[in-house]
Design brief:
The complex is a heterodimer. Chain A is built from 30 helices and four strands. By secondary structure, chain A is an all-alpha fold. In chain A, the strands form two sheets. Chain A has a two-stranded antiparallel ribbon with strand order 1-2. Chain A is globular and about 85 Å long. Chain B is an alpha/beta fold. Chain B has two domains: 214 residues, P-loop containing nucleotide triphosphate hydrolases (Rossmann fold, 3-Layer(aba) Sandwich); 75 residues, CBS-domain (Roll), CATH 3.10.580. Chain B has a six-stranded mixed β-sheet with strand order 6-7-8-3-9-10, with helices on both faces. Classes of the chains: A mainly alpha, B alpha/beta. Chains A and B meet through helix 12 and helix 13 of A and helix 4, strand 6 and helix 5 of B.
Chain lengths: 686, 347
Amino acid sequence: MSTVNAAINNSTPPASFARGYSYRLCWLLIALATFYLSSNAKAIAKSLDMRWLVKYPSAWKLPIKDHISAFMQWLVEVAHFGFFSFTDLTRGISWLIEQPYNLALSLFSTGLLSGVGSDAIQLLPPLSWIAVVLAVIALGHYAKDWWLAALCGSAFVYLAVFGQWNSAMVTLASIAIAVPMGVALGLLLGIAIFRHAWVDRVMSPVLDLMQTIPVFAYLVPILFMFGFGPVSALIATIIYAMPPMVRMTALALRGVNDEVRDLGVMVGCTDRQLLWRVLIPVARPGLMVGVNQVIMLSLNMVIIASMIGAGGLGYDVLTSLRKLDIGGGIEAGIAIVVLAVALDRLSQAIVDRQGSERRSSAITVDQHFLRRYPRLVMVLVVAVLLSLLGVVSPFFQAYPESAQITTGQFWQDKVSFININYFDDLEVFKDAVLIWFLLPIKRFLLGIPWPWGLVLITLIAAHFGGWRLAFLTFLLSGFIVVNGLWLKAMTTVYLCGASVIIASLIGIPLGIWAALNKTAGRIIGVFIDTLQTLPSFVYLIPVVMLFRVGDFTAMIAVVLYALAPAVRYAAHGIRSIDPQLIEAGTVSGCTPRQLLTRIRLPLAYPEILMGINQTIMLALSMLVITALVGTRDLGQEVYIALTKADVGRGIVAGLSVAFIAIIADRIIVAGARRARQRYAPSTLNQ
Amino acid sequence: MSDAKLACRDVWKLYGPSAKQLLERNPEPDLADVLEAGLVPAVRAANLQVHSGEIFVIMGLSGSGKSTLVRCMSRLIEPTQGELIFEGQDLLGASKAQMIDIRRHKMGMVFQHFALLPHLSVLENVAFPLDIQGQNKQQREARAREIIELVGLAGREDYLPHELSGGQQQRVGIARSLAVEPEIWFLDEPFSALDPLIRREMQDEFLRLQAKLKKSIVFITHDFDEAIRLADRIAIMKEGAIVQIASPEELVLNPATDYVAEFTRYVPRDKVISVGSIMQANGSAQYGADSGASVSVRSMDKIADISATVFDAEHPLNVVDDNGVKVGSIDRAAIVDFLVSSSRHQQ
């Protein structure tokens, strides 16, 4: 309440009016100074003979990355915990993950092997493709209805017919291991956060960092510790996919009604019973949302993980991209999308199923196993039967190669066709955007001398969030400066900023439209859902095909990837405005346009800001991936570190990206809070 | 009193830092002292006794501390200070394991929003406390079916909570709390979330159950009419303190403060006050000894129930006590006086 009062007092005339006026004048002067410095920095530096103003001298760099590299070296070669060395520990972890992974892999792809490499003899064949398709259909029917069963079934048949089966099964095997492990670890950590305040205090900044630090950055240390191979890929996938599960677990457990918890205590639950018999079952719908997130993020990692040794579809996409084999890349990319859509719909349906589970009349416990699990029994019987048949006829074992269709050539031709016929139009469009939009932003941002940049960002933080935030911002951006990454960081800021501007210009109006018009809302909803299902990497493929490498290509991919939250939050902000306020506006004689500009937009402003915040986060994570298409920002720095296995360089650059994300996040959240206080003080009381 | 099932002695619950220190410094702070110390007073110096087999209602408006008090009584909330005596045992001294044991076997609680476990069927919900105790499936389900039958939900054992109406859901909540045959039965605004018609039906159902089971009950409500209808005794709470503890009739006849009087003002007095309070007692009889009437009324009858009988009679009627011994008499004039004064009272 006190903050509300403060906000109200703030807006009382006349003293603060005068202050607000001089405040605004002050900011205007700062902006002008920035423009002036940005365009004339070089000349000034020259005339003053202070080159360090525009280029941070390498003699001033702190050797942070060398220390990190040295530490990693020490960890791997020397570190010892009494009975076992650090390397023993990592080997132990590897072994633990390898066992289930090998099992899954032999089940889906290789069959049970005896022996190693080319001497291996297949003892048992892998699951027949027909059995897998049937299992998926059964799962779809169990989760929802025949429609979903048909969707999932045809997705998997597609994989077989279009020759992606083997790769897809390798990918599926790694998903089948990464997801349960990520879910289990996330659940345990979430429970620890829920139970112990100190774990919460420790974990919440760690989680922030895990979600903002680009994946590539921790690929390097993982590579260093676990070597190149599927295990490293699995570990990276689990680390990447786990944070939302941790958060959802803590959130869902906290969200359990107090009365339900009281009930648990009153019937005499021990702590353990309270958790596993009351809280977790009641929180299950929330937990399942987390599981869905883990699945989607694991799929998102498929291509990136193939950089450190995962096989499967991701590997196919990556090699095609490197060879510029357009057709092959699109084929494998589509296969990932198909897999992602099938798994997403399936897991969503299982989430929704919770409520309507177990019709009252249906199952009593005493019924026969076969009647309780008809689908499971059927699938098991069919799988065994097909394996036996597979010995007789290979058709039952694997989809015949002769009947496979390849679309690689088709896509290749399509892209060539577009490039031949529309090359000039595409080029003109690209150049126009570059010259009139991207380059001016780039020139402006890169022109700002770093000392002024440091002061400016600190002042902005102080304006929105007070001196504590200003201090944090100064430290984080100072870290970037002392590592000599200022210019690369500004390139990242420029690419991210340009993409976010475009994504907001497209996304916010779409969101508003979706909120105001039901039909539009439904269509846009489907569109956005699909966009979010696609693994980030997939966006790169068509864009690279059409625009080749460069900043423009990167921007298009980032915009596509980061569009969704701008739309979602704007729509949500507009939808959640109290209808009475709209009625009040209508009664006061507002035109629809006035309703929008005077009531809806100001009230939805905080939500829209949060949407932009999320857009920035996604844009930053995508930017790192676009390093593959030749941007020269921090992402590139991380990527180079990865290819050179330079741990210190990778971590420092990765942290720099994370710090940019954290600064942007904190400033925008503070700004949104201010806006909320101004427009809707009542929401603060909750 | 010897038959007290559960007694609270000087129970305090203050929220805020250094709540304990304040009570150590000043064992009996008044409301101003507490607020001045920056603490939130939830329960202040609560003293009460719940007798075996009685319905003890705690009535207060929202924020008066009644929910906190009942949670202190079951140690869902740890009181800042005070003593809780349950069946002669010091409840606050009980260890964690002892508390689990007491809750498993001797306490039952019904919640305002039912607190049913959404993933369990009606049968499993009711059997849940027994499951937690570790009873085997056959035994606990047999007991659960028995209780489900008792609360009138037979045939719905396999329904999930969300398939039931609010009233039915609360029947499940009641059945679940009774499954362990509790010694003390807490009901925290059990009917507040229900529609008025259903609420009345559930109150009747509750009285029927209690007539059969004779539990010691702590019943929380913010509805004074509900309190009057159900209670053997009522404690009225305001700002964390108990203002008055009395039977409904005493409350109406002798409200301790204006605050209590304000509640009792619109109570239909003829349904609360009994014949004994307005009859002509023996000895001061105006109408002579035995009027010879064959009809008599009992002194504990509520006036509303007998006013028609009195009006229909030619003569004043005899008033007898529970044993049939004449203790006084009542006539039309007394009834009229009462009704007139009641209607004045409510203006």
